[in-house]
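name: query_chain
kind: protein
chains: 1
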Amino acid sequence: MVAISKPKLQTDLYLCPACDGDGKHYIDKPDAVEGYKLARTIACPLCDGKQRFAKDSPIGQAVKAFWETLNDIRKHEYLKKVSDFEHSKEVARVALSKLSFDEIKALRDLDIISTDDPGEVLRKTFDTI
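structure:
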């Protein structure tokens, strides 16, 4: 079964979107061993290294609107994935309910269907008969 992870939503709506609240950008590529530990940095040109914007400033309100819009898009995409997954589960359940036990067992043996779901579908299918 495919796991659908919940979207990562931005909770601090005033973080700088250019540096993700880091306040800096890395000039050098990361070292294979040390990572970014030895890399040179510059202050973020959008927030000047402050990492956040004031709530009452115009740019702060614009950043807040950006994060809210992005959160809404992420929530919508997540709900669509969940809806599509639930629909495909229902289609699979209906399709498997039309097969005999031997046909389902053959599909399972050939690894065409997973070994997790068919047992659940089989129980539901043969309980309703």
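note: The chain has a mean pLDDT of 83.
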